[in-house]
Amino acid sequence: MTGDIGVLILLGGTEAVVTAMPQKLDEPIPILKQSSNISPEGAYEYSYETGNGIAADETGVLHKAANPEDGSVVVAEGRYSWTAPDGKLYSVTYKADENGFQVFGDHIPKK
């Protein structure tokens, strides 16, 4: 029984030391480019690019809905891309409107 208690104390002490060890901090990723613009009419655009290969941009505009009772809808179109750890570039384009969200990319399975 005392052997079991000794093992528990040893394991608890080891866990405390391991969890108290300093953790490696990731390097900050720089923002290389960033822009945004919002018009008084409700249209917008933004884009950014990071130092680790991530990039995105989107535009949005107000359109009158097909059904006048629905008022206006925002139609957004954009794209984003990133570089995977293996060096492969992935790109996604999309559109969101009154018909829903549609996404496209070579790596996305087709129906």
UniProtKB/TrEMBL annotation:
Supply the InterPro entries for this chain: CHIT_BIND_RR_consensus, Cuticle_Struct_Prot, Insect_cuticle
Name the domain of life: Eukaryota
The signal sequence is 1-16
| TM spans (from-to) | none
UniProt entry keywords in alphabetical sequence: Cuticle, Signal
A single cellular component GO annotation = chitin-based extracellular matrix
Gene Ontology molecular functions: structural constituent of chitin-based larval cuticle
Q: Name one Pfam family in it.
A: Chitin_bind_4
Q: What is this protein called?
A: Uncharacterized protein
> Which species?
Timema tahoe
